[in-house]
Specification:
about 25% helix; 11 strands; Ribosomal Protein L30, Chain: A; alpha+beta; 5-stranded mixed sheet; about 30% strand; single chain; PH-domain like; 3 domains
């Protein structure tokens, strides 16, 4: 990888077709900074940005090797790759023909015209979650007592002792990011923590069914927005469609790749990247 004092470059895929590990291994062997284990890792988790933090010469050589194998990648300066704005988590929102309607913490709707939505990213993503469990045990303690004619009966008291255990687990969750042209730029929704009352009679007892209906509504109204593969699946195949990503990194990397491509087409200067 490039040293901190050097310019850093990324290898950006021209499309989202997977690249075989053996193809990457062959390309990486032409340079000394990338090894076979990198090829396996990047092949599994590359969703648009094949590699980053490379020296210019390393990136150029690998791109040339891949081109010989019929795979087009672009060498892009690190500063040209969009960064994701901080997520603004929503617990409640609505969708209407004219606007997306996030609800703030005071219960007020803040309409966002659909023309302001630039990208929609949705999918099933494995997340690392913390599960805390508190167990209370009671111990009996004795203190000196007074004989009451029936022998010595010491008074007792019960002391509660609480034990906290923490366990980490991976759960597949529905995620939806709605990117807009104005602050807060990125509305973030987790399927299991969202209030779907806006669905009315369409609401079911199944959170994932409600989630896909939400995504379907957002995609149907925001006709000018770019879509990730999860959103495209729901648009093309209906609300029963589910697209799973191998990791949160893959989900977010595909979003970054789409923002980069979208910015190239529209000449977009992402406001959250301005210094």
């Amino acid at each position: 990888m490039a040293r901190a004092t050097e310019e850093q470059y990324c290898l950006v895929q021209s499309n989202l077709d997977p690249i075989e590990p053996n193809t990457l291994k062959a390309a990486f062997r032409a340079v000394g900074e990338l090894v076979d284990s990198d090829a396996k890792t990047l092949s599994a988790d590359a969703f648009g940005i094949l590699a980053d933090g490379l020296r210019a010469e390393t990136a150029r050589i690998v791109a040339g090797q891949l081109a010989q194998a019929g795979i087009q990648v672009d060498v892009v300066h690190h500063d040209q790759i969009p960064t994701l704005p901080d997520p603004h988590t929503l617990r409640r929102a609505g969708c209407g023909p004219k606007a997306f309607m996030p609800t703030d913490s005071l219960g007020r709707d803040e309409p966002v015209d659909w023309s302001r939505v630039i990208l929609i990213a949705a999918g099933i993503v494995p997340l690392r979650e913390t599960k805390r469990k508190i167990r209370t045990r009671y111990k009996v303690r004795y203190v000196g007592g007074v004989g009451l004619g029936l022998g010595h009966i010491p008074p007792v008291y019960v002391v509660p002792e609480r034990e906290l255990s923490i366990r980490y687990q991976r759960k597949s969750r529905g995620l939806l990011d709605v990117f807009v042209k104005d602050e807060p730029y990125r509305y973030h929704i987790r399927a299991e923590k969202f209030n779907y009352n806006y669905l009315g009679d369409r609401q079911t007892n199944n959170k994932m069914e409600n989630f896909t209906q939400l995504v379907h509504d957002v995609v149907s109204y925001a006709t000018a927005a770019a879509l990730n593969r999860g959103a495209v699946a729901i648009k093309d195949e209906g609300i029963e469609a589910i697209f799973s990503y191998p990791s949160k990194h893959a989900f977010e990397e595909e979003t970054i790749w789409l923002l980069y491509k979208f910015g190239q087409q529209r000449g977009r200067d992402w406001p959250w990247m301005r210094v």
